[in-house]
Fold this sequence. Notes:
By secondary structure, the chain is an alpha+beta fold.
Amino acid sequence: MKKFLVFLFVLAVLIGGVALGKNAIIKTSVERGVELVTGLKLNMGSLNVGILKPIVDIKNLTLLNPPSYSDRTMIDIPEIYVDYDLKSILGGKIHLPEVRLALKEFVVVKNAQGELNLDALKTVQAQKEEKAPSQKAPGKAPQIQIDLLKLSVGKVIYKDYSRGATPAVKEFNVNLNESYTNVGDPNALLNLIIVKTLMNTSIAGLANFDLGGLQGSVGGILSDAQKMASPEAVTGAVKGAQDALKGLVKNPFGSGK
C-alpha cells in the first residue's frame, strides 16, 4: 500500500510538471503570436491549459502601447476563456469552438505629437495602405477558426495629450455584451474588437480615426451578429419555447415508447 501511495505521488508530480511546462510553452507562443499579429507587446499574468478538458484559462492579459507612450496599457483583459479542439490543433489549424473575451478597459491615446496609439497596430496600418495584414507582418499569422465569440467590453477611455502635458480625458461606459459566429482569423478578431468598441463612443470623431476600412473587413461577422439578435430570431425562439412548454404540459412523461 505504501509503495502504491508513493507511486501515485510521483505520478502526480510528473503530471504537474508536464502541465506547468506545457503552460509555459503555450504562454510564450501566445505572447509571440499576438505580437506578430498586432505589432505590440503582450503581457500575460497566467495561462492554464486543462489536462482532462480542452479548456484554456488566461488571466490578466494586457496589450501594451508602443514605448513612446507614457500610458503603458492599450487593452486590459482580466480573463479569457477558450474551448479548443485538440484534434484540429494537432493537424495544424487552431479550431476554437468557443471563446469568451472580457475587456475591462480599452484606452485610446493621442500623444503630444498628435500620434494615435491605434495607428501602431499592424491591422490599422494595413487598412490605410490597402493591404492584407499578412503582407505587413514579417511572418505568417496562424490560422484560427472561432465558432462562437462572446465579447464583453466595460469601459473605453480617450486621452489627448496633443494640447498639453495634462491630457483631456473622456470615459465611456459602453457595457457591451454580444456574441458573434465564424470569426476566421486573428486580424478579423482584432478589427472586430476595435470596431465594436469605438462604434459605441464618439472617440473615432474626436481622434479623427477612420473606422470605415475596419468596418468593411468585419461586415460579414457584424451582419451575422445582427441576425442572431434580430426581432424575428427572438420571436422564433420565444415561440419555440412556448410550443415546447405546451407539449410538456399536455404530455409531461413523453410518448411512452
